[in-house]
Amino acid sequence: MSIAKHPVGKESLAQIYDALAHRYAEGGGINDYYTLPLIKHFCPPNVSRALEVCCGAGGIAIELARNVPSVWAIDLSPEMIACARQRSQDVTNKPVFIQGDLSVYDFGGQTFDYVYGAYFVAYFEIRPLLQRLVRLTRADGRICFVDGLQGPGMSSFRLRDVARQYADYTRFMQRHGMSVDALQWFVHRLKRRRLLVSRDWRQVERWKREHRGSDPQSIWTEQFLEALPGARIERITPRLVCVIWDRK
């Protein structure tokens, strides 16, 4: 399988995330106490092949591979993929980690029972992205992703805001019968703060401002429903949603 040339601007994004790989590997990015439980909870039973979009340092793909026979995961950043492969060295059922651009990568005509990811929508033109995800999903398969409707959903670190975020998170998790680990959630928030105030992350925000797609985030929900008719859009916080769509 070949990797096509990245669209304009994607090379610089890959370099930016290369610098963040070590932070994601340490738990500063996608975390085991928030995103991972959602991805596992909404994973349909009897999934044989899954694909993670923008997998970062690979933690979710590695965990999902404990129960899914074949897990593929793609990310634009070479350092993220190198980190993910390193982390999976001692894993019995290793995910297939791919360095490439989701929008152009050739999967050899393969489709997946479960296509999932978190915090990646802002890096793509929304309509082509959703169309791409649909094409990669088998009949009777599922798409599930977590993302913010108005940019990063948990960027405030004032005590009252963190308390509100925790309350929103707890209500969502309990509504779906998922356990809540308060201590580990707050530990993650501290790690997340270190990431979001770092110089490396400011490079991400600068890239978004310079390369933002034509679709404003304020109308993402409308476009989700247009491209994924009948999708469930579960609001986690006022800014953060989980989208679940079953292909018929």
User: According to CATH, what is the topology?
Assistant: Rossmann fold
Q: Which strands sit side by side, in order, in the main sheet?
A: 3-2-1-4-5-7-6
CATH superfamily: Vaccinia Virus protein VP39
Instruction: Report the span from N to C terminus.
Output: 29 Å
Features:
248 residues, alpha/beta, Rossmann fold, globular, disordered N terminus
Short description:
With 248 residues, the chain is of the alpha/beta class. The protein has helices at residues 10-25, 35-41, 59-64, 78-87, 126-135, 159-175, 182-196, 199-211, 220-227; strands spanning 49-53, 70-75, 96-99, 112-118, 137-148, 232-235, 240-246.
What does this structure look like?
The chain has 9 helices and 7 strands. It has a single domain, classed as Vaccinia Virus protein VP39 (Rossmann fold), CATH 3.40.50. Helix 5 links the parallel strand 4 and strand 5. The relative contact order is 0.17. The radius of gyration is 17 Å and the shape is globular. The N terminus is likely disordered. Helix 1 runs parallel beside helix 4, helix 1 runs antiparallel to helix 8 and helix 5 runs parallel beside helix 9. With 248 residues, the chain is α/β, with parallel strands linked by helices. The protein has a 7-stranded mixed sheet with strand order 3-2-1-4-5-7-6.
